[in-house]
Amino acid sequence: MDLHLKNKVILITGGTAGIGKATAFEFLKEGAEVIVCSRSKNKIDSFLKDAESKGFSPSAFSVDVSKENELKSFINEIGNTYGHIDILFHNAALGHMSYLTQLKKDAWDTIINTNLTSAWMSAKFILPFMKTAGGSIILTCSLASKIATTSVGVYAITKSGIASLTRLLASELAPYKIRVNAVSPGVISSDMVKETVLKTKGLPYACHSAVMQRIGAPKEVAKPVVFLASDAASFITGEVLDISGGKFIVQDPWAPWEDFGISVPYI
Ligand SMILES: NC(=O)c1ccc[n+]([C@@H]2O[C@H](COP(=O)([O-])OP(=O)(O)OC[C@H]3O[C@@H](n4cnc5c(N)ncnc54)[C@H](OP(=O)(O)O)[C@@H]3O)[C@@H](O)[C@H]2O)c1
Fold first, then answer.
1. Which domains does the chain have, with CATH numbers?
2. Pocket test for ligand 1, best of 41, 192, 195 (most atoms within 8 A of CB)
3. Distance (Å, whole) CA 138 – CA 185
4. Inter-residue contact 135 to 32 (CB < 8 Å)
5. Residue 157, Cα to own-chain centre: how many angstroms?
6. Which Pfam families does UniProt cross-reference here (predicted)?
């Protein structure tokens, strides 16, 4: 199916690693003009090197999305260069493990600003460059928005905010023919997960609540993002799409595997 994404201008925050990077490559395969940002020079260099080795030439900028001025300048620069922006995938976020009653105010501010405030600001700053021709905004939620892990409280709160922001923006931007949706991953093999849940709890723990009994790969989120961004999803807006291998959809997801004597895949 032709998704009509060729030459579309696509901006991805947190596009140099994990889910964001996999999504950048899916859009590049569709012939889109892809611009990513993240903070660290190492990740940007490695992203550009990988892209070049695959024959792609995306652009990548060093931007901290939690800083209003940096985010605004970045979006304005891209918008003014191309004259418009067709698609925003707001994906940048930080995980943070701490019980809420032990959390420091600085950490609260950092996570709220990086994960939630930046999503709202991105939509606001991009509007002047999207409102004439219409477009698509995809935010990155998390299953933690619905069922949180207690020790990752502030992260879960930001993702609950993303779910609400998705629906509110979908309503507010519908008159401009801008659709707003979110993807809501379960456990996906990325640096964020390797450094948090996989390190502290291990792979079987990460898989046990999903009926597919495995974690996902970044490209398994990337492809649905491309779908939501494309005209194939032209009547879908305000949706938060779970991409989790069926996490928390039954109480005993491991039971059929055990009862049928089939070993679980984990990855
Ligand atoms: N992996 C999962 O299981 C999972 C589950 C649910 C939801 N999610 C969500 O999926 C998204 C991507 O996560 P991931 O697992 O792919 O994580 P990841 O591998 O850690 O990648 C995160 C990306 O965001 C960038 N980033 C972080 N803070 C930033 C900031 N302040 N400004 C700009 N860029 C920033 C990082 O680059 P720099 O370090 O260079 O800034 C990196 O490119 C996040 O929104 C996350 O909450 C992931």
1. 9-188+217-248 (3.40.50.720)
2. 192
3. 13
4. no
5. 16
6. adh_short_C2
